[in-house]
């Protein structure tokens, strides 16, 4: 009897892929599928209806008509551009790539920043919040003797809770970042600090200027004629629900990135000025009943030199800094700490997937939002971010390129691909677009997910998303 060996198919790649579906059905679906593909499989595209007319700036001649009416199903789909991985994986990857480019070009050049910036003094600083009460901390698992909180002085708080903890906590331990006594923990202080961080940061940067001027022996106002300080920073939420910031700082000459700083503007001076500026940064916040709350930076201020290559405890490479920062922008928020969308009412906090500690911080933010003295902090608007308002990633004006510029370059590249020839004299665009909806029905969302799988997640971001150099020539 003849034996037939049947080899099992070891390939786990499906023979029929989601892209085949587009070929099986009609041209309108095919066009829609391609549009969705261009969005990289965005999970929640924005639907727009309207038109953009492109005219020659000099002659007003109509060069190009772009209307949603000519698009599949009569709508233009635009990617959601959400930076959060939990909301949209492909868009967060794109955002991550942009952040990396912004930080990286400010450290080693590119995207319109001269490569000579890599010779400028650069440091990477980490700024933390002060303590709002003892919390459980990650212990060093290389040291068997390392305990969470050593027993010293008072053993219990006024609520009868222990003020020490003999346990060892790994990073995944849910107790990490939670207070030893929730009744003692200064929840209001933590929220108000998050809400005031932007103001504190601005003061910190100004103080670095003052400290630099003092060391150089010039008046603060004269400093910009000698040296310029620029930075790019990202903030992240720590497990205790306080934000902290990572920032790359750079000294330039008075004309910015293309100008070499004077020889006396060294890494040592930059490091010294930042280290001195930390403790000198202080603001007062007026509260109810004439209360005055002092806001300061945490005592832990880590400053490291950024170099072209190599990484040890004292220095960090340009690439490490860029990807480190980009990673935090999309993955920074620890699970159960913040919510991606604004709250409409306090009831949403109870139902949300949050840790008890985060829930209490969020509730505090919402409740303090009713205090007239804190009106300017817009605490209810930002309660989902534990009071922190503003952007996760920010930079000073001259640091490097911007998200807007990167988007514009990308849009121009796509227009070029679409065969739109722009006259030398320039064009004017008249646009009228109306928002008609967001997101995809569940079955269509599955198709988007398939595209995201096939294009972005497996292969990494598409080359035209990250490599802008070709289109920059236009
Ligand atoms: Zn998206
Ligand atoms: Zn502990
Ligand atoms: Zn207590």
Automatic annotation (TrEMBL):
It comes from the Bacteria. InterPro entries: RepSA (IPR046828). It holds the Pfam family RepSA. This is Plasmid replication initiator protein.
């Amino acid at each position: 009897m003849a034996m037939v060996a049947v080899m099992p198919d070891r390939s786990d790649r499906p023979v029929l892929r989601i892209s085949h579906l587009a070929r099986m059905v009609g041209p309108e679906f095919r066009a829609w599928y391609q549009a969705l593909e261009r969005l990289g499989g965005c999970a929640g595209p924005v639907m727009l209806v309207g038109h953009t007319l492109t005219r020659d700036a000099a002659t007003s001649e109509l060069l190009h008509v772009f209307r949603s009416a000519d698009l599949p199903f009569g709508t233009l789909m635009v990617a959601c551009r959400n930076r959060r991985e939990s909301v949209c994986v492909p868009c967060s990857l794109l955002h991550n790539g942009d952040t990396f480019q912004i930080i990286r070009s400010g450290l080693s050049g590119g995207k319109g920043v001269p490569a000579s910036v890599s010779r400028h003094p650069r440091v990477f600083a980490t700024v933390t919040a002060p303590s709002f009460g003892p919390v459980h901390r990650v212990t060093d698992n290389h040291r068997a003797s390392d305990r969470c909180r050593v027993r010293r002085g008072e053993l219990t708080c006024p609520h009868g809770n222990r003020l020490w903890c003999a346990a060892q906590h790994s990073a995944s331990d849910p107790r990490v970042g939670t207070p030893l006594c929730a009744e003692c923990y200064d929840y209001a202080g933590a929220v108000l600090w998050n809400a005031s961080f932007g103001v504190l940061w601005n003061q910190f940067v100004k103080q670095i200027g003052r400290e630099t001027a003092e060391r150089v022996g010039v008046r603060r106002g004269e400093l910009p004629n000698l040296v310029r300080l620029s930075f790019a920073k990202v903030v992240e939420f720590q497990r205790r629900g306080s934000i902290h910031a990572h920032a790359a700082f750079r000294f330039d000459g008075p004309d910015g990135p293309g100008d070499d700083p004077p020889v006396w503007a060294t890494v040592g001076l930059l490091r010294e000025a930042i280290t001195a500026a930390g403790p000198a940064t202080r603001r007062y916040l007026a509260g109810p009943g004439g209360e005055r709350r002092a806001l300061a930076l945490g005592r832990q201020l880590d400053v490291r030199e950024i170099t072209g290559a190599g990484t040890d405890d004292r220095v960090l490479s340009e690439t490490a800094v860029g990807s480190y920062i980009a990673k935090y922008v999309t993955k920074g928020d620890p699970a159960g700490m913040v919510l991606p969308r604004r709250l409409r009412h306090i009831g949403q906090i109870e139902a949300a997937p949050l840790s008890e500690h985060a829930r209490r911080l969020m509730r505090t933010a919402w409740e303090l939002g009713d205090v007239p003295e804190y009106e300017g902090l817009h605490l209810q608007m930002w309660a989902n971010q534990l009071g922190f308002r503003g952007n996760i990633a920010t930079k000073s004006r001259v640091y490097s390129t911007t998200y807007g510029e990167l988007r514009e370059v990308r849009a121009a590249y796509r227009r070029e691909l679409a065969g739109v020839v722009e006259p030398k004299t320039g064009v004017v665009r008249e646009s009228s677009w109306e928002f008609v909806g967001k997101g995809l029905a569940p079955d269509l969302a599955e198709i988007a997910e398939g595209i995201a799988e096939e294009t972005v997640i497996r292969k990494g971001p598409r080359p035209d998303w990250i490599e802008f150099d070709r289109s920059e020539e236009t």
